[in-house]
């Protein structure tokens, strides 16, 4: 047997194979580098819409760098003056505080009540089955209608809430008419409206937990409360956090409920950034300053969302 | 041959018949001639157009809306009214005009908002329409509008600011208001309370009323954090204390809201609100004020005089129970002061149907529409002198159910004047004042709040 010849053939063959594979790689690379026009055409509408959104956002940012005012025929570029002027005022910091207080307290309370309602739904008792479709009602109402409805109900003189309180011997409550109770009242409206959102998402999370896990806990001697605290809660924590991300974004931007009830008052007690920005732009007609406040609000939303998403990832890693 | 009575009767009958036909024809011809003289413009020149007229939900709008079929029949122009609640309307007006949207052709405005809109070229100056004989009927008689109202709506735009008193016409008045104190006679009589004339007197009366009937709100006043709550009671009473929104210092415009007079006024006013107004004061707009006085939940109110009139109209629950008085004055002041508000019709500068829009403005502010609206009990304070000298209106307004409306109107109108300084930037400064008022009513220190308010206004000037 001419092994030398075989070696030569093998060597040649391997060289040919190498050449062929390198050619295939080149073809593959060329194919990869070639534009896939069909795919591009398919995603083009999404890209155009995204660019449209970005354009509007950056247009707002550009406006915030100008002295755009309704009575001013010529618009001047003034750099960061609108921001500098804003942060030097006490009203601005009051609005930042109000925005944070509103969003944080609403989201925390909604998460707590949402969890309680979800647990009730998961228990499968008759009342829970009855309540499941009803609880969605506040979510489907337009926020401005919710605001008007609660404004009437919270009227200190003729509102039904004070009437109901009077039946149990509680005296007149000022609700949205007093600076010391207005923020509490607004958070209450937010809780009423958006707790069902938390409840639904957490309920979905509870439904996703395998019964075997609960059974194993029971076999190991865990009682109801311990099962919930050490087994269920860690497993549904990512669900709670993802709901909290969505609600935090909305609460930091909340406008309809606040403007429809207090318009930011009494005084400046509920003047969150979105309401202050609107009033500055569309009532005081100072569009440049209003845009600057909107950009600040956007930055707060962005930071808050990043923090929540990071927390969500951490929790998810621990759970998995 | 002597005519028989029958023949005579027949002849006479023929004569009467002929005379009737002739006189009818003559009357028709004369009427046509008069009509031709009155209708000296072609009202159908924009036939087939369709325009949108935006306004506040307000009886003044109802008065015009009720007569719209006549306009549409006269011109062939279709008018779509878009009416919004007060706060929403002003916000929407700004958005519509500032975005140069052509969807509204005619808008309702007051002088003060128009000060902010005119420099941005968002309103169409109306002189060229008024002075165009092809577009404006000779019978329109622009000079029939009270001179003070015409002057108030005439100014010149100078860069970012306005110069009042001369220049272009920016809107046509179609109803105005002066600020008065109106009260439920039945309630005050029942509790033996005299009509107060100063804020301290009002505070005392409120305490007496509250102790007599805790369910009653003694005084209805607007309190929303918007300029509309300043332009009624607050500015009228403040002026009698010697407060000016702006003063000229060293040739420059300067806010007068931190002056000693302003501090004195706010001390009294805030005290009065705390003792008299509804607990929902900060959320109350004119709708709540009117509802309170109409239902009898509120004993007195300081606002536009026609709110009292509308509820005195026969058939309303409060008919004949509401009486009128001048607004409150400073305790040491000699005279009361009353601010005026002029509801006016203006044209959107971005409108694509300006000719049709002008015909509508002209018709809606004409003598006949004003008079008809007034006698319907809606367009109460007509801006036309001819309405106020018309016997039909005067007979109507002096009916017993309107108590002392006409007499008080005459007394107040002598001192009624625009209490604000004409300037662009009105909304920003007055909104800030409304917010400061809420803070003071909620317990903030009066002097410190006014100092902050003044510095806020200065920084925006």
TrEMBL record, chain A:
Entry's transmembrane regions: 37-62, 100-122, 134-153, 160-177, 183-206, 227-249, 291-312
Taxonomy, superkingdom: Bacteria
Primary subcellular site in the record, as a coarse category: membrane
GO BP term (any one): transmembrane transport
Coiled-coil segments: none
Keywords, ordered alphabetically: Membrane, Transmembrane, Transmembrane helix, Transport
Bilayer topology term: Multi-pass membrane protein
The protein's name: Sugar ABC transporter permease
Source organism of the structure: Bradyrhizobium niftali
Automatic annotation (TrEMBL), chain B:
Keyword Signal: yes
Alphabetically ordered keywords of this record: Periplasm, Signal, Transport
Subcellular location: Periplasm
Bilayer-spanning residue ranges: none
GO cellular component term, pick one: periplasmic space
Keyword Lipid biosynthesis appears in the UniProt entry: no
Classification via Pfam families: SBP_bac_1 (PF01547)
InterPro entries named in the record: Bact_solute-bd_prot1, SBP
Record-linked SUPFAM superfamilies: Periplasmic binding protein-like II
Family designation: Belongs to the bacterial solute-binding protein 1 family.
PANTHER family, sorted: ABC TRANSPORTER PERIPLASMIC-BINDING PROTEIN YCJN-RELATED, ARABINOSE-BINDING PROTEIN-RELATED
Protein's name according to its UniProt entry: Sugar ABC transporter substrate-binding protein
Lineage start: Bacteria, Pseudomonadati, Pseudomonadota, Alphaproteobacteria, Hyphomicrobiales
């Amino acid at each position: 047997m001419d092994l030398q010849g075989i070696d030569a053939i093998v060597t040649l063959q391997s060289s040919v194979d190498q050449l062929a594979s390198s050619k295939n790689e080149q073809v593959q690379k060329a194919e990869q580098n070639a534009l896939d026009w069909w795919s591009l055409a398919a995603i083009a509408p999404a890209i155009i819409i995204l660019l449209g959104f970005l354009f509007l956002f950056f247009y707002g940012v550009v406006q915030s760098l100008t002295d755009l005012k309704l009575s001013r025929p010529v618009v001047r570029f003034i750099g960061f003056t609108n921001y500098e002027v804003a942060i030097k005022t006490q009203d601005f910091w009051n609005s930042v505080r109000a925005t944070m207080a509103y969003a944080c307290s609403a989201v925390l309370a909604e998460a707590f009540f949402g969890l309680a309602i979800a647990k009730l739904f998961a228990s499968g008792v008759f009342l829970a089955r009855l309540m499941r479709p009803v609880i969605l009602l506040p979510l489907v109402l337009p926020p401005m209608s919710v605001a008007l409805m609660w404004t009437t109900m919270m009227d200190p003189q003729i509102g039904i809430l004070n009437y109901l309180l009077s039946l149990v011997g509680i005296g007149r409550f000022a609700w949205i008419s007093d600076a010391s109770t207005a923020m509490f009242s607004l958070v209450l409206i937010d809780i009423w409206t958006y707790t069902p959102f938390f409840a639904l998402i957490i309920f979905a999370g509870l439904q996703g937990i395998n019964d075997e896990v609960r059974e194993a806990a029971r076999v190991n001697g865990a009682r109801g409360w311990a099962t919930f605290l050490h087994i269920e809660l860690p497993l549904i924590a990512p669900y709670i956090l993802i709901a909290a991300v969505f609600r935090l974004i909305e609460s930091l931007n909340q406008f309809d409920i606040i403007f429809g009830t207090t318009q930011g008052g009494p005084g400046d007690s509920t003047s969150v950034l979105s309401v202050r920005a609107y009033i500055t732009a569309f009532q005081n007609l100072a569009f440049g300053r209003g845009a600057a406040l909107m950009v600040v609000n956007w930055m707060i939303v962005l930071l808050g969302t990043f923090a929540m998403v990071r927390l969500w990832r951490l929790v998810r890693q621990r759970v998995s | 041959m002597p005519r028989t009575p029958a023949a005579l009767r027949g002849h006479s009958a023929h004569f009467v018949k002929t005379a009737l036909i002739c006189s009818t024809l003559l009357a028709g011809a004369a009427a046509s001639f008069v009509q031709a003289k009155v209708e000296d413009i072609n009202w159908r020149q924009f036939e087939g157009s369709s325009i949108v007229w935006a306004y506040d939900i307000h009886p003044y709008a109802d008065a015009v809306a009720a007569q719209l079929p006549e306009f549409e029949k006269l011109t062939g122009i279709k008018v779509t009214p878009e009416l919004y609640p007060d706060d929403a309307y002003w916000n929407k007006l700004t958005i519509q005009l500032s975005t140069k949207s052509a969807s509204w052709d005619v808008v309702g405005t007051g002088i003060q908002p128009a000060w902010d809109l005119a420099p941005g070229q968002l309103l169409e100056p109306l002189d060229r329409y008024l002075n165009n004989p092809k577009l404006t009927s000779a019978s329109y008689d622009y000079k029939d509008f009270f001179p003070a109202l015409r002057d108030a709506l005439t100014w010149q735009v100078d860069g970012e600011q306005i110069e009042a008193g001369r220049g272009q016409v920016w809107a046509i008045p179609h109803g105005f208001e002066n600020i008065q104190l109106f009260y439920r006679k039945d309630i005050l009589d029942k509790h033996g309370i005299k009509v107060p004339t100063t804020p301290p007197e009002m505070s005392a009366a409120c305490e007496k009323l509250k102790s007599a009937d805790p369910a009653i709100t003694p005084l209805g006043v607007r309190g929303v954090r918007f300029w509309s709550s300043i332009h009624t009671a607050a500015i009228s009473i403040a002026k009698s204390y010697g407060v000016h929104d702006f003063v000229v210092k060293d040739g420059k415009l300067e806010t007068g809201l931190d002056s000693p007079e302003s501090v004195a006024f706010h001390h009294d006013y805030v005290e009065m609100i705390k003792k008299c107004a509804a607990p929902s004061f900060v959320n109350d707009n004119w709708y709540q004020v009117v509802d309170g006085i109409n239902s009898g939940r509120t004993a007195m109110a300081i606002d536009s005089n026609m709110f009292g009139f509308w509820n005195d109209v026969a058939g309303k629950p409060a008919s004949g129970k509401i009486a009128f008085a001048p607004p409150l004055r400073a305790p040491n002041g000699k005279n009361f002061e009353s601010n005026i508000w002029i509801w006016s019709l203006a044209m959107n500068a971005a409108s694509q149907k300006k000719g049709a829009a002008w015909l509508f403005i002209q018709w809606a502010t004409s003598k006949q529409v004003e008079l008809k609206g007034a006698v319907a009990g809606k367009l109460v304070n007509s801006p036309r002198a001819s309405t106020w000298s018309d016997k039909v209106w005067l007979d109507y307004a002096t009916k017993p159910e309107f108590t002392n409306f006409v007499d008080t109107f005459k007394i107040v109108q002598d001192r009624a004047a625009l209490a604000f300084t004409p300037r662009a930037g009105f909304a920003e400064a007055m909104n800030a004042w409304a917010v400061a008022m809420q803070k003071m009513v909620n317990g903030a220190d009066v002097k410190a709040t006014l100092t902050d308010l003044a510095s806020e206004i200065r920084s925006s000037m």
